[in-house]
Amino acid sequence: MMKFDVAVVGAGIAGLAAAGRLRISGCRVLLIDKARGPGGRLATRHGVGEIRMDHGCQYLVEGSDDESSILQSDARDDCLGIWRPNCTGSNSMHLDNYPEGDLWHVGVPTMSAIPRSMARDLQVKLKSRVATLKRIDDDWLLLDTDDQPIAQATWVLSAIPSPQAIDLLAPHEFSGLEVMSKATYDPNWTLMVVEPGSTTGEPDVIEPQNGSIAWIVNQKSKPGRPEVDAWVAQATTRWSTDNLELDQAQVIQKLLPEMSAAIGRQVNGETSAHRWRYAFVNDPAGEPSLLDPDRKLAACGDWCLGNRVTHAITSGRAAAQTILRNMK
Length: 328
Ligand SMILES: Cc1cc2nc3c(=O)[nH]c(=O)nc-3n(C[C@H](O)[C@H](O)[C@H](O)COP(=O)(O)OP(=O)(O)OC[C@H]3O[C@@H](n4cnc5c(N)ncnc54)[C@H](O)[C@@H]3O)c2cc1C
Description:
Helix 1 (13-24) packs parallel to helix 7. This protein is 21% helix and 28% strand. The two termini are 23 Å apart. By secondary structure, the chain is an alpha+beta fold. Residues 9-15, 32-35, 40-42, 56-60, 129-130, 159-161, 164, 188, 190, 234, 276, 279-280, 301-302, 307-309, 312 line the site of flavin-adenine dinucleotide.
C-alpha cells in the first residue's frame, strides 16, 4: 500500500483547497471521497439527456482576500463564468439591486467544473468512504466500511461536515472535539424539474416572499447551459427541518405546486428531489481550522468559519498551513 504524508478525507472545496496547498509545498497527499466525483456540496447531477442540474451551491461570490479567493485557487479560469440573471419580476427585495455589488461566479458548463479543475493535478480516490482510523506505529491506516485499508498516512486531515468528523475523530480523542461540536448545520430539501422546452419572458431567479420555498433558479440563465427550462428550488430551512424524513415522492408532491405558483404557470417535466442533511452552517466553530499535533490529526471545512464556499476555501488553506508548520 502506498504511503502518504497527508490523507485528506473529503474532496469538497475545503479538502481540495487544502490538498492543493499541501501538494505545491512538496507533500505526498491523497484525497479520499465517498462520492463518484469531487466537489461535495458544490455539485452537479444528471437531469434529462444532456441537461445537468447544479443541485447544491448555485453561485460563488469572490472572497475578500487571497486566502478566500476562488479566482486565485487551483481552478482554471476557463471553468468560471459570471452569471447575470434577469431578476425582473422576481418579486424579491433581496435581488432588486442585482447586479450592483458582488458579482456571481459560476462553474461553466456546470458548477462541478470548478472542483474537477481544482482536482486535476491531485491524487484522488473516489467511491471510498473512510469509516475508521487505526494507529499503526507512527502512521494512520484509513479503513473503509468493509474494514479494508484505503491508504496509510502520517497525517489525517478531515474535510467533512463536523457531525461526520466527530464520528471519525472522537474514538481517537482529537483535541479539537469540543470546539468542533459548537458548529451546527441546517438541512435543505432541493426540488429539480427539467421541462421539455424553453419559455421566454420569465424571471431567471424567483425568491417567494412566503411559503415553503426560499428561492428558485432557472439553470438556463447561467453561462454555457442548454436553452431548456431547468428549475432548481431550495426549500426554506424551516420546511426542510420539519420535513427532513419525508421521501423524495412526498417532497415532490408538496413542493411542486408551490414552485408552479411562484413561476406563474403549471411546471411539467422530469422531476426529482435531493436531501442535504448538512446543507448550510448555522453556527460556525469560530476557528479557521483545528489541529492536534500529538495525534497528527487535523480538521477543516465550512463549519469552521461560515456557510459559504469562501469559508471552506479559507479553512482548507488554513489547515494546510498549520499541518506544514507542524511537520517534522
Ligand atoms: C443547497 C445548497 C446551496 C448552497 N448555495 C451556496 C451558494 O449559493 N454560495 C455559496 O458560497 N455556498 C453555498 N452553499 C454552501 C457551500 O456549498 C458549502 O459551504 C461548501 O461547498 C462546503 O464545502 P466543504 O468542503 O466544507 O464540505 P462538503 O462540500 O460537504 O465536502 C465534504 C466532502 O466529504 C465527503 N465525505 C463525507 N464523509 C466522508 C467519509 N467518511 N469518507 C470519504 N468522504 C466523505 C463528501 O462526499 C463531500 O464530497 C450551498 C450549499 C447547499 C447544500
